[in-house]
């Protein structure tokens, strides 16, 4: 029947499709729009063949249709989605909720405050700018591990956090009062994604008299963690989130859906972290960027929500838009465990089953564009490193992975190995491969009680055998939820973690985002010649070079029990499958298998100490915050009082002097290359989040304003100030710009204006900080481009990686491939992403980055169009085509408007003043 329904069945010429129904529960009636009515009326052929994630998108289009916002034709086309006959289709997606953390949420709110100020200047009503959908903002990214290894560490770190970030938090408290649907979780409440999973999410919601599936977008790429609960959601840039906040729909292409069939079961000693790291490796290899990944198969009903959360959380690491698990019995069990009300659990179950959104016994496997088979029986204990999450290695391979990065040879060519039992020689330096940071941190693994209890049992067993952590290892425990400390204390395991230095340092992202603080004094004094060659082991999701700590090149992702194990060993230069961690109190070697926690013991502890009452205690006062937070003065009013002297919050320039109509798109002529980058450049490289070095352009700027070196704070904390962030763009200490191949860091060659033939010659060029070179090019009137390799923009969703590039004067980025969120962010900032044609990249074309470029596009630009590019260097001329990665008509219009903020502003002003003129 698919494809053969007529106009009447599709609802053409009608106002809707007549799908309204009522769900009866013990709490009363719940109106909703029935997906099954589409089958009954012949609008779609068979709902069961659709992936569950597509069914949720279908419900959204059906609801919009029935409410008169969308043509029934869109419902028909999406409902008859066929993986065997794929169709390029764009649909509106209106998420039910927006999720933010402070690093990415604050600049988004600053943009909205700037939009209010701009509307006021043009004589409009600033209240037009308000939150049209609920938004939850969790303050969790500003905590740093300055203090550790003591019971006072957490309170002292939080005191420093509130002291350092007082200006930022004053702005957030203004926003909380000024924007109508903003709910804020103050510092100390937990990490955003774990709080979302355990408390904020509803799965099925009721709003304005209608019941529908909860959907969410977040200004953090790991928003996908909520996919484990059957909630469809993913990460977006801050500017895209702003559009949703203002009531706009996101226009998305219906994605390919990759089904991952899980079978078998994890063996004893294998953890959910091991499974997730295997998944990252496998799916990166398969290529799932910009696709939905959906899990199904015989093993899925036996995976707990905690297991699923670790896998879904790392969807950005395997490149997918989502990593989705449909609602099933495990979902209901988790909702009960985390203290959701019985009426809410009943509503989720009844609604999901009525709508065909419940995956249970007898459910038909959907049809997918591609199916990947994963056998859980074959998963092995693993880490990922030393530089990327997809670099999975078996437990026995850490030493060999490190030798690819560092030469570990000692005197006379013998291998330099660290023996934890004897330690280093007096006065000697720490050998390469030493663990300098061991952190149980991040939302990914601290969300999993089995992993956290496992770490506690391993710590207990190690203490009882007499093992100790070497003095050069900085240890920390920063869980994503207060519930973790509750059950670790109740089970008596927390004291053993503390005996090994894993004291609570606070509830926040900390080490995973580079807020690791200073290294242990023993790691630095005395310091050996040359660079510091130690490493970090953390239970996080990202290990990009320089992200965890600017002095550490090697970082390994591992489960919490393995973090404790490597802290005890003091090095990664060993094979834990056959070499001892160290010597026990009796002088005998202690191996990992001697202290590894049995699964049965972990389950016994959780059965005794983890129940709904733990989560009830955790979240009973989640929105209150510590006394120091409550004491921060907060102004009210529609307009934020900008302070020119503030070094944290400044009105951004995007809407200053904005004309009512955008100028036409014109070719980009005479452009220079600001940076020529290789493969795997991350958003960390483009816009760092860690501490601001005193000798960097941003550090010098702040010190000129009177900021003391000890108060420079981090780039992430200063994202409300474009003057700092533009200076920090492409300023990462590990950035490799091929225009300056002999040096690392935010440097480039300035070649001058291409005004004369002599200046076009590939001269040496003056080496300058990238910000200073960009300023000179701006004064010259020279437009700029970036050139990059594969997977440009991997990592965090931070929109400052696009904002900063745009403010440096970059008009286009030419890369071999883009990561999804960053590509969108570039378009939203008015920067054109251009992708080399298949089989080409800068090296094959012969580009050096010294050329002057002409890029030929204009008002006729369309999605996926090939753009003619001409490059000249002296007498040499090169010409080639590149693909304009504006993927939809909406993105073309966004680019034409100069970005999403000008587009939204013009729309609001026309709504306020239809005859708006300059």
Essential attributes:
918 residues, Aconitase, domain 3, Aconitase, Domain 2, 7-stranded mixed beta barrel, 5-stranded parallel sheet, disordered N terminus
Summed up:
With 918 residues, the chain is an alpha/beta fold.
Characterization of the model:
- This protein has 918 residues and is an alpha/beta fold.
- The chain has six domains: 7-87, no CATH class; 93-253, Aconitase, domain 3 (2-Layer Sandwich), CATH 3.30.499; 255-380, 3-Layer(aba) Sandwich (Aconitase, Domain 2); 397-405 and 425-609, 2-Layer Sandwich (Aconitase, domain 3), CATH 3.30.499; 668-686 and 732-896, Aconitase, domain 4, CATH 3.20.19; 688-728, no CATH class.
- It is built from 34 helices and 32 strands.
- The strands form ten sheets. A seven-stranded mixed barrel has the order 24-27-28-29-32-31-30.
- The protein is globular and about 75 Å long.
- The protein starts with 6 loop residues before the first helix and ends in a 6-residue tail after the last helix.
How are the SSEs placed, and which strands pair?
Blueprint: H1 7-10, E1 20-25, E2 28-33, H2 36-40, H3 52-66, H4 72-79, E3 90-93, E4 97-101, H5 102-121, E5 135-138, H6 153-164, H7 166-178, E6 182-185, H8 192-200, E7 204-207, E8 210-213, E9 215-218, E10 232-235, H9 238-245, E11 250-253, E12 257-263, H10 272-286, E13 292-296, H11 305-313, H12 315-318, E14 322-324, H13 329-337, H14 342-354, E15 370-375, E16 382-384, E17 392-394, H15 398-403, E18 435-441, H16 443-446, H17 449-465, E19 474-478, H18 482-490, H19 494-499, H20 521-524, E20 535-538, E21 554-557, H21 560-569, E22 582-583, E23 589-590, H22 592-595, H23 599-609, H24 612-619, H25 627-630, E24 668-676, H26 683-686, H27 697-704, H28 722-728, E25 747-750, E26 766-769, H29 770-780, E27 784-787, H30 800-807, E28 810-815, H31 820-828, E29 832-836, H32 842-845, E30 852-856, E31 866-873, E32 876-884, H33 889-896, H34 900-912
Parallel strand pairs: 4-5, 4-9, 5-6, 9-10, 12-13, 12-15, 13-14, 18-19, 18-20, 20-21, 24-27, 27-28, 28-29
Antiparallel strand pairs: 1-2, 3-11, 7-8, 16-17, 22-23, 24-30, 25-26, 29-32, 30-31, 31-32
Helix pairs in contact: 3-4, 5-7, 5-9, 5-34, 10-11, 17-21, 17-23, 18-24, 27-28, 28-30, 30-31
């Amino acid at each position: 029947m698919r494809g053969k329904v007529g106009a009447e069945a599709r609802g053409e010429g009608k106002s809707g499709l007549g799908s309204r129904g009522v769900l009866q529960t013990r709490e009363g009636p719940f109106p909703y729009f029935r997906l099954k009515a589409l089958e009954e009326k012949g609008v779609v052929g068979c709902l069961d063949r659709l992936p569950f994630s597509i069914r949720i998108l279908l419900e959204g289009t059906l609801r919009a249709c029935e409410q008169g916002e969308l043509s029934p034709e869109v419902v028909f086309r999406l409902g008859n989605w066929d993986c065997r006959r794929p169709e390029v289709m764009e649909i509106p997606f209106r998420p039910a909720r927006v999720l933010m953390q402070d690093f990415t949420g604050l600049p988004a709110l600053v943009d909205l405050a700037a939009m209010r100020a701009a509307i006021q200047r043009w004589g409009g009503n600033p209240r037009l700018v308000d939150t049209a959908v609920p938004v939850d903002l969790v303050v969790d990214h500003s905590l740093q591990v300055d203090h550790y290894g003591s019971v006072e560490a957490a309170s002292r770190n939080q005191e420093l956090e509130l002291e350092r970030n007082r200006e930022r938090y004053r702005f957030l408290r203004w926003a909380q009062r000024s924007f109508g649907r903003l709910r804020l979780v103050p510092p100390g409440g937990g990490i955003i994604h774990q709080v979302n999973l355990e408390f904020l999410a509803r799965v099925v919601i009721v709003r304005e008299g209608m019941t529908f599936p909860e959907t969410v977008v977040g200004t953090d790429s790991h928003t996908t963690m909520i996919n484990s609960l059957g909630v469809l959601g993913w990460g977006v840039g801050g500017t895209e989130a702003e559009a949703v906040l203002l009531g706009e729909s996101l226009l998305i292409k219906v994605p390919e859906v990759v089904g991952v069939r899980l079978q078998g079961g994890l063996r004893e000693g294998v953890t959910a972290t091991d499974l997730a790291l295997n998944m990252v490796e496998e799916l990166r290899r398969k290529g799932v960027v910009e696709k939905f990944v959906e899990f199904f198969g015989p093993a899925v009903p036996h995976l707990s929500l905690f297991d699923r959360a670790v896998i879904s959380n790392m969807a950005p690491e395997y490149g997918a838009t989502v990593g989705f698990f449909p609602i099933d019995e495990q979902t209901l069990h988790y909702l009960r465990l985390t203290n959701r009300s019985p009426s809410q659990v009943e509503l989720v179950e009844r609604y999901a089953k009525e709508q065909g959104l419940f995956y249970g016994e007898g459910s038909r496997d959907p049809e997918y564009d591609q199916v990947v088979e994963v056998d859980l029986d074959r998963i092995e204990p693993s880490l990922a490193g030393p530089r990327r999450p997809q670099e999975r290695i078996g437990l026995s391979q850490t030493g060999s992975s490190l030798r690819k990065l560092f030469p570990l040879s000692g005197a006379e060519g013998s291998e330099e190995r660290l023996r934890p039992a004897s330690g280093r020689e007096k006065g000697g330096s720490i050998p390469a491969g030493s663990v300098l940071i061991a952190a149980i941190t991040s939302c990914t693994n601290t969300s999993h009680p089995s992993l956290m209890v496992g770490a506690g049992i391993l710590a207990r067993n190690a203490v009882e055998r007499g093992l100790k952590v070497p003095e050069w290892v900085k240890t920390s425990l920063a869980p994503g939820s207060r519930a973790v400390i509750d059950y670790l204390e109740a089970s008596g395991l927390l004291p053993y973690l503390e005996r090994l230095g894993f004291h609570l340092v606070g509830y926040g992202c900390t080490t995973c985002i580079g807020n690791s603080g200073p290294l242990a004094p023993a790691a630095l004094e005395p310091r050996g010649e040359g660079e510091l060659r130690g490493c970090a082991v953390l239970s996080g999701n990202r290990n990009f070079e320089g992200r965890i700590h600017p002095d550490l090149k090697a970082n390994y992702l591992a489960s919490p029990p393995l973090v404790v194990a490597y802290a005890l060993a003091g090095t990664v230069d060993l094979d834990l499958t056959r070499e001892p961690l160290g010597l026990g109190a009796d002088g005998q070697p202690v191996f990992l298998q001697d202290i590894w926690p049995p699964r049965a013991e972990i389950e016994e502890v959780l059965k005794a100490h983890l129940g709904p009452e733990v989560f009830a205690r955790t979240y009973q006062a989640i929105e209150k915050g510590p006394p120091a937070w409550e004491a921060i003065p907060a102004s009210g009013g529609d307009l934020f009082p900008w302070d020119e002297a503030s070094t944290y919050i400044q009105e951004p320039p995007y809407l200053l002097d904005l004309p009512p109509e955008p100028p036409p798109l014109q070719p980009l002529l005479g452009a220079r290359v600001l940076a020529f980058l290789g493969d795997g450049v991350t958003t960390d490289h483009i816009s760092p989040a860690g501490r601001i070095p005193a000798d960097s352009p941003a550090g010098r700027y702040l010190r000129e304003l009177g900021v003391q070196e000890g108060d420079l704070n981090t780039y992430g904390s200063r994202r409300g100030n474009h003057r700092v962030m533009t200076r920090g763009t492409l300023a990462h200490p590990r950035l490799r710009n091929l225009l300056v191949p002999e040096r690392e860091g935010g440097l480039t060659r300035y070649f001058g204006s291409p005004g004369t033939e002599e200046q076009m010659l590939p001269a040496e060029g003056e080496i300058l900080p990238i910000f200073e070179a960009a300023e000179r090019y701006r004064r010259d009137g020279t437009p700029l481009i970036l050139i990059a390799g594969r997977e440009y923009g991997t990592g965090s969703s931070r929109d400052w990686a696009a904002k900063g590039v745009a403010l440096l004067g970059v008009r286009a980025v030419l890369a071999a491939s883009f990561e999804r969120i960053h590509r969108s962010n570039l378009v939203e900032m008015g920067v054109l992403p251009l992708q080399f044609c298949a089989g080409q990249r800068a090296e094959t074309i012969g580009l050096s980055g010294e050329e002057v470029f002409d890029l030929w596009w204009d008002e006729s630009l369309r999605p996926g169009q090939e753009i003619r590019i001409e490059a000249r260097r002296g007498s040499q001329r090169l010409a080639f085509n590149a693909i304009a990665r504006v993927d939809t008509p909406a993105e073309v219009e966004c680019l034409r408007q100069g970005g999403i903020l000008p587009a939204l502003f013009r729309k609001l002003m026309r709504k306020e003043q239809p005859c708006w003129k300059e």
